[in-house]
Specification:
Protein name: Trehalose/maltose import ATP-binding protein MalK
InterPro entries: AAA+_ATPase, ABC_transporter-like_ATP-bd, ABC_transporter-like_CS, ABC_transpr_FbpC, ABC_transpr_MalK/UgpC-like, Mo/tungstate-bd_C_term_dom, P-loop_NTPase
Shape: globular
Strand order of the largest sheet: 6-7-8-3-9-10
Distance between the termini: 39 Å
Order of helices and strands: EEEHEEEHHHEHEHEEHHEEEEEEE
Pfam family, one: ABC_tran
CATH superfamily of the largest domain: P-loop containing nucleotide triphosphate hydrolases
CATH class of the largest domain: Alpha Beta
Helix content: 25-40%
Radius of gyration: 23 Å
GO molecular function, one term: ABC-type ferric iron transporter activity
Number of helices: 8
Organism: Sulfuracidifex tepidarius
């Protein structure tokens, strides 16, 4: 199914939370909404789900206006940050209840539960309670509960934030596999740009209720729309510098991998070097500004280095 968000506005306590949001999400797309805390991304997801109504604008699913249709009638699967499992009910019941509420018979529901629980590797956990499971297991149960209804739209709100780093990596892989396997149109909200870049077919960057840029991970990384996007995307983000250092007007953004050390006639002093495993991230002082570069060896603080910039993004 396709989804359109058309001219959506939302105000809370006289504060504009969403400002004329327009999105067109294609059938089967994995679409990531990325932004810092308080940017409006969760409010947007709740409006799409039908848990809140916009003050203005429309939500269309397959070209049908669903703005005033209750959440329970939109056939949407949703995974929340806290998983929202019923603590007093066994895992089997957590999966069965949404099917029962939709009017599905027990025999058909049992078949679906058995299928999805086996696919997600939780078939051995069905008689346990949520409190008896690890964070990673609870996350899989939450995914199963959202998918067991075969939703036409899959919404995820920071679903990996409670997992440790190794669990997040494996969970990202699982989510992407499931989404591709079922071809479910999916919207994933996160503040983590690594998750966004790893998962999204396209990414929408939102801040202070406004869309800053929409594009593929590659487009946003290589050609950020403005300095705010440039400073948010990438690990490390772009170094933002006065363009006059290379004879350009305005400001420029430079990726660390585009700084070639020990070449060229530009010079700076090393502030420090961070060990990253296979290389070092070197912070270089250019007087009042700072440039980041990668190096295969540790460079000592205070050492003067020469460099050249092979590629940059110019901001007007």
């Amino acid at each position: 199914m396709s989804l359109e968000v058309r001219e959506v506005n939302k105000v809370y306590n006289r504060k504009l939370i969403l400002d004329r949001i327009n999105l067109q999400i294609e059938k089967g797309e994995f679409f990531v909404v990325l932004g810092p805390s308080g940017s409006g991304k969760t409010t947007l997801l709740r409006i799409i789900a039908g848990l809140e109504k916009p003050d203005n604008g429309k939500i269309l699913i397959d070209n049908t206006d669903v703005t005033n249709i209750p959440a329970g009638k939109r056939n949407i699967g949703m995974v929340f940050q806290n998983y929202a499992l019923y603590p007093s009910k066994r895992i089997w019941d957590n999966l069965f209840l949404p099917l029962e509420s939709s009017g599905m018979g027990k025999e058909e529901a049992t078949k679906r539960i058995e299928f999805i629980s086996k696919r997600l590797g939780i078939d051995g956990l069905l008689q346990r309670f949520p409190g008896e499971l690890s964070g990673g297991q609870q996350q899989r149960v939450a995914l199963a509960r959202a998918l067991v209804k075969t939703p036409r739209l899959f919404l995820m709100d920071e679903p990996l934030s409670n997992l440790d780093a190794p669990q997040r990596v494996s969970a990202r892989k699982l989510i992407k596999e499931i989404q591709e396997e079922y071809s479910i149109t999916s919207i994933y909200v996160t503040h983590d740009q690594t998750e966004a870049m790893a998962l999204g077919d396209r990414i929408c960057i939102i801040d202070e209720g406004k869309i800053l840029q929409i594009g593929t991970p590659e487009e946003i990384y290589d050609d950020p729309a403005d300095e705010k996007v440039a400073s948010f995307i990438g690990n490390p983000p772009m170094s933002l510098l006065d363009g006059s250092i290379i004879g350009e007007k305005g400001n420029i953004g430079v990726r660390a991998e585009d700084v070639i050390l020990e070449e060229g006639d530009m010079k700076g002093k090393v502030i420090n070097s961070e060990f990253l495993g296979d290389r070092y991230l070197v912070h270089i002082s250019l007087g009042s500004e700072e440039l980041m570069a990668f190096s295969k060896v540790r460079l000592r603080e205070g050492v003067e280095v020469s460099f050249r910039i092979s590629k940059f993004k110019q901001f007007r």
